[in-house]
Every structure is written in C-alpha cells, then in structure tokens.
Amino acid sequence: MGILKRLRDLTVASVNDVLDSMEDPVVMLNQYMRDMEVEIGQVEVAVARQVALEKKFRQQWEEALAFVEKRDRQVKLALSEGEDELARRALADKKQYEARAREYETLYQSASDAAQKMREKLAELKEEFYKMRAKKYTLMARAQVAKTQKQVNQAIVGMGSETASRGFARMEEKVMRMEAEADLSAQWRLTNAGLDHSLSKWEKDELDAELAQIKASLLDKKETPQHPEQA
C-alpha cells in the first residue's frame, strides 16, 4: 500500500506540474473572471426568485389581515342586528384568517431574512469581482513583463550556449586560415616581383661583359695543351 500511495502521489504531482506549466496567467485570469460573472448571474437569479417569494408571502399575509378586519366588522354588525348565528359564522371565519395570517407572516419573515442574506452575498460577490477585475489588469501586466524578461533571458542564454561558442570558434579558425592564406599569397607575389625588379636593374653591357669573361675562360681551358702526366 505504501508503494502504491507513493506512485499515486508521484503521478498526481506530475500531472499538477504539467497543468501548471500549461496554465497561461492571462488566459486563466480571464477564465476566473468569467466564472465569477457566471456565479454572480446565478446568485442574481436566485435573489430575484427569493424577493418574488418574499413579496408573495407578504401579499398573502396582508390579504389575510384584511379578511380578519373584514370579518371582525361583520361579527360586530351581525351582533348589533341580533344575527347571532351570522355573527358566529363570521367569527369562525375570522379565526381561520387569523391562523392564515400568522402562517403567512412566518413565511414572509423567513423569506425576507433569506432574501436579505442573499442580497448581502450578492453584494460581497460583486465587490470581490470589482476588486479582482482591478487586480487582473495589474497581474496581466506583470505576467507580460515576466514573459518578456524570460524571453530576453533565454535569448541571452542561447547566445552564450556551448553550441554557439563552438560555432564561433570554428568560424574564427576559418577566418584565421583565410587570413594566413592571403598573407602567404601576398608574400609570394612580393617575392616574384622583387626578383623581376632586381633583374631589371642590371645594365645590358654589364651582363654582356660578364658573359664574355665566362666565355673567354672556357676557350682558354680548351686551347691550353695538357702535359702527358695530366693526360
């Protein structure tokens, strides 16, 4: 039983976590306000019915009192005219209306008390509704600020993530290779240009003179006879 209870508690906790993560404060606040409006509407209908019942019992009570007064006058009138039997029937009828009047009075008082309590409950609900409606806009504004701040923080965290860092490092290395290749290409071009420039500085006669010396040296070696021991 202990294991099953823990599993049930874990399941309930997991479901509550999922529901909590799905709840949008703005959506839920609007829903709560709609629920309160529905509740207020239901109480208003109940109050209206109770007030109608209160008026009905009051009317019946007042009608019964009116009949009591009427029968009382009839009893006195019958007695004054010597109509004892008629006076007796009128008195009996008066007693019945007095009993009804007392019954309707009790019902009226009970309905009136219930109606008053329901009116107070309705007033409390409306007051709470107005407070919640005013608070709703504050909470909605705070929720929007928090949501925006969370998005900004997530964006900042995303920019500093390991994946982004590796990507930037790879691009930095690639740029460094491109720069090295560009430097090497520029050095090779400068080397070739320097060689061509140095050759262009030689005067033609100097080149011809040096070539003539090399040529004469080769002819001298060719024409000079070699000694037998050198052969």
UniProtKB/TrEMBL annotation:
Pfam family name, one: PspA_IM30
Keyword tags: Coiled coil
Coiled coil: 87-135
Domain of life of the source: Bacteria
The family this protein is said to belong to: Belongs to the PspA/Vipp/IM30 family.
Matches recorded under PANTHER family: MEMBRANE-ASSOCIATED PROTEIN VIPP1, CHLOROPLASTIC (PTHR31088), PHAGE SHOCK PROTEIN A (PTHR31088:SF6)
Protein name in the entry: Phage shock protein A
Organism encoding this protein: Brevibacillus aydinogluensis
